[in-house]
Amino acid sequence: KAIFYKAVHSARGIYISDHDSNFVYTIGDKKAEICDRNTKIDCSNGIHISHLNWALNFGSSWPDLAILEVETKISNIVLPDNSDGKVRTSEVKVIREVPLDECGIYGKILAKRRGKDVSN
User: Fold this and answer.
1) Which residue, of 23, 47, 81, 94, has the greatest Cβ tally within 10 A?
2) Per-position DSSP letters for 51-91, written without gaps between them
């Protein structure tokens, strides 16, 4: 298994996909989707996940950004040939929302921009 991150919109504790507003993530639950195994295609069907900085960059302009820590089986990961840090998978388990102040200096800057209480 591997740990990745997912940028989502957060509305009162409900975590919503940027791509499909009907696709909702719940902490502790698994989500599954048909995943395109073709590595020649950068963006296709599947649940898109990434390393932490990619997720922060992707959602950095959203006022309702939340970062989810997710787990997936390594065998389910599709790494596109031209990936810049994003991969796709057929299933994730949502572990937790990662507070922005745990996301390094970039996360702390984003949290500060949103007026969230961040220590030093």
Assistant:
1) 47
2) -HHHHHHHHTT-TTEEEEEEEE-GGG-B--TT-SSEEEESE
How much is the pTM? 0.91
Q: Which two tokens stand for residue 103?
A: 């996301």
Angle at 79 between CA 14 and CA 50, to 5 degrees: 35
69: Cα within 13 Å, side-chain hemisphere: 11
CA dist 19 and 11 (Å) reads: 15
What is the per-residue pLDDT across 26-63, written as a single tens digit (0 to 9) for each? 999 999 999 999 999 988 999 999 999 999 999 999 99
